[in-house]
Design a protein that fits this description.
Radius of gyration: 16 Å
Low-confidence stretches: none
Distance between the termini: 30 Å
Number of helices: 6
Strand content: 5-15%
Shape: globular
Mean pLDDT: 90
Helix content: 25-40%
């Protein structure tokens, strides 16, 4: 639940970064922890979400849609509703961001223990490394000092929230596929 209430990057101001999504105010969005059924999926595609698309049903989710003034004010029921919204991201291909098309084409149809896995049937899930979208492409942003701060705050070390590690520990997916790597 603390992932959806995260305020770790609310102080960041780069016009290319997470500030437009993380700063407290009417444009603040809810962190995007995953796209697809994270609880049911035996395969997780680990990547960074599409940048700066408030029209996307996940990226554009705001606390106000759930009756809260900010992330910090989200109640338990709102957090359950947000998780459910993200779990059902791939239910409607018409609202799925085109960013995922190549991954859907590449991974859908894999069989595991006799079950054919797809994003649409909830057996493959995309899980974000960084939970807040960025205005600019992530790879360009992470090379800047503020991008490195976001990386630190969301993922690493004692100062970081380690959200991805906590998600893996909680759900224990048997297969992790890392986008952009040879492994």
């Amino acid at each position: 639940a603390d992932m959806y209430r995260c305020q770790s990057c609310a102080d960041l101001t780069s016009p290319l970064g997470v500030g437009d999504f993380a700063a407290v105010g009417p444009r603040q969005t809810v962190p995007v922890s995953h796209f697809g059924n994270i609880t049911r999926s035996p395969i997780w595609l680990i990547l960074n979400n599409p940048a700066n698309d408030r029209q996307d049903v996940a990226v554009g989710t705001t606390p106000a849609m759930f009756g809260a003034a900010s992330r910090a004010a989200l109640g338990t029921e709102a957090i359950r509703a947000i998780k459910t919204r993200l779990d059902h991201y791939f239910d409607d291909a018409a609202t799925t961001h085109e960013f995922f098309d190549r991954w859907v084409d590449l991974l859908s149809g894999i069989a595991l223990n006799g079950e054919v896995l797809t994003f649409a049937n909830g057996t493959i899930c995309a899980v974000d490394l960084i939970k807040c979208p960025t205005v600019a492409n992530w790879m360009g942003y992470v090379m800047k000092p503020e991008g490195k701060q976001v990386w630190d705050r969301c993922l690493r070390g004692a100062s970081g929230n380690r959200f991805l590690i906590r998600q893996i520990e909680l759900h224990r997916p048997p297969v992790l596929v890392f986008a952009g790597t040879a492994n």
